[in-house]
Amino acid sequence: QASTRSHCIFTIHLSSKEPGSATVRHAKLHLVDLAGSERVAKTGVGGQLLTEAKYINLSLHYLEQVIIALSEKHRAHIPYRNSMMTSVLRDSLGGNCMTTMIATLSLEKRNIDESISTCRFAQRVALIKNEAVLNEEIDPRLV
């Protein structure tokens, strides 16, 4: 709450049922706003801001590890439990889902390294292939 920067995850649970049908469809939508990584040497932050930057960079590193592992076809272990964020997003990254990433870039010349890094991250996210199927069940109250 006192942080100047952080990641933000909004989770929306949806259920729908057609009139006269016993089938209920469920969905979960994660809206994720990632704080950008920070090149500490470039920004020169210190103290509390330096600590926050380290935690943000570390959580982005763990997210990238999961994304890389998911894009490898025969990977036996996916490191979801390395961070709270990857644990929360587990079903949205490698589960029964469709994943979309929107990347925001800076066009300023001084931020070109960060913009290229963001594009590479988005490319790795695009390599994740999931087979999403409808989450349907018979309404237990009607059974």
TrEMBL record:
Q: Which organism is it from?
A: Gulo gulo
**InterPro entries registered for this protein in UniProt:** Kinesin-like_fam (IPR027640), Kinesin_motor_CS (IPR019821), Kinesin_motor_dom (IPR001752), Kinesin_motor_dom_sf (IPR036961), P-loop_NTPase (IPR027417)
In terms of SUPFAM superfamilies, this protein maps to: P-loop containing nucleoside triphosphate hydrolases
Q: Does the keyword Cytoplasm apply?
A: yes
Q: Name one GO biological process term.
A: microtubule-based movement
Q: Where in the cell is it found?
A: Cytoplasm, Cytoskeleton
Q: Can you name this protein?
A: Kinesin motor domain-containing protein
Q: Which domain of life is it from?
A: Eukaryota
> What Gene3D superfamilies does the record point to?
Kinesin motor domain
